[in-house]
Design a protein that fits this description.
Blueprint lengths: L15 H9 L6 H14 L2 H20 L8 H18 L8 H20 L9 H13 L8 H11 L3 H12 L30 H23 L3 H11 L7 H8 L3 H20 L1
Helix pairs in contact: 2-3, 3-4, 3-5, 4-5, 6-8, 7-8, 9-12, 10-12, 11-12
Length: about 280
């Protein structure tokens, strides 16, 4: 797609002012010219026609990109991504639909800019689901004032955007958060809060602790096996089927298997567990 237009106009690589001045000199196509070029591209795969369509609409990309300047990303980068969307739209444009190219292309331009913002706005991606993406680009516009949304405002935003109130609250929290470096940063401020590395260490990754946990688990299994061996077959069967398998066997079913009363099975289970605890503790 990028070969449709000259490199120097593919995006604002150098001076943004110079780029804006250059595209401002490109004339806008009328409906008939636009249709003729689109038909040439569709019929003959004419890249010169595609180039003319793209060049004549670069100013509209700038207009769309300016609407996203509040996200703190360079305008030149937003324009560049929008230009990619424009080129994709030119390739897919069907003049037989009797609509102007810009009406069709604005979706593709916005889509590329949205993807760029989501990739670069934060180190950690803040929107992954369809509902989150919708909220990311609409929540700030929906807020009427600074500060956290009230319960009524949350309900109204959720209703307007077709998402749940929980989605609104989660995205509001994400937008209010900020990236923090995991490792400590040199600072002369003695009162600066500690870096996350100081309190988010995962002790489970310590090989010594992992080995200790494995040894403890193996030791517990050996103790349980030895303790079970001290029980008579009936008591061992009751304990195993009540506590060591899934799904557990009911007392009623065990009473039927061993030919005793429900109360007798309960007593045998209680006595067996008491003996097991004593054997393991010994």
């Amino acid at each position: 797609m990028r070969d449709l237009i000259p490199v120097q106009l593919a995006g604002p690589q150098g001076s943004l002012d110079a780029y804006l001045a250059t595209i401002g000199q490109i004339s806008v196509l009328d409906a008939d010219e636009e249709r003729a070029l689109a038909e040439r591209l569709q019929r003959d795969n004419d890249l010169d026609a595609a180039r003319a369509l793209v060049l004549s609409h670069l100013r509209f990309v700038v207009h769309v990109a300016r609407g996203y300047s509040g996200y703190g990303l360079p305008l030149g980068d937003l324009i560049q991504e929008g230009n990619i969307g424009l080129m994709k739209a030119v390739r897919r444009f069907d003049p037989a639909q009797n609509v102007r190219l810009i009406s069709f292309a604005v979706h593709w331009i916005r889509a590329e800019i949205h993807e760029f913002i989501l990739r670069n706005w934060r180190i950690v991606k803040v929107a992954t689901t369809k509902a989150q993406r919708k909220l990311f680009f609409n929540l700030r516009k929906a807020k009427k004032r600074l500060g956290w949304l009230s319960h009524a405002e949350v309900e109204a935003v959720a209703s307007d955007l077709g998402v749940t109130p929980e989605n609104v609250l989660e995205m509001e929290a994400r937008l209010s958060a900020h990236d923090a470096t995991f490792d400590p940063v040199e600072s002369d401020d003695d009162d600066a809060p500690p870096a996350p590395v100081a309190y988010l260490a995962d002790q489970r990754a310590d090989p010594a602790l992992q080995l200790e946990a494995l040894d403890s688990a193996d030791h517990g299994k050996r103790q349980l096996t030895a303790a079970l061996a001290t029980l008579d077959p009936r008591s061992r069967d009751i304990v195993e089927k009540r506590w060591l398998v899934e799904p557990k066997t009911t007392l009623k079913d065990l009473a039927a298997v061993h030919g005793v009363s429900l109360e007798r099975i309960r007593q045998l289970e209680k006595n067996a567990l008491t003996r097991l605890r004593g054997a393991i503790a010994a």
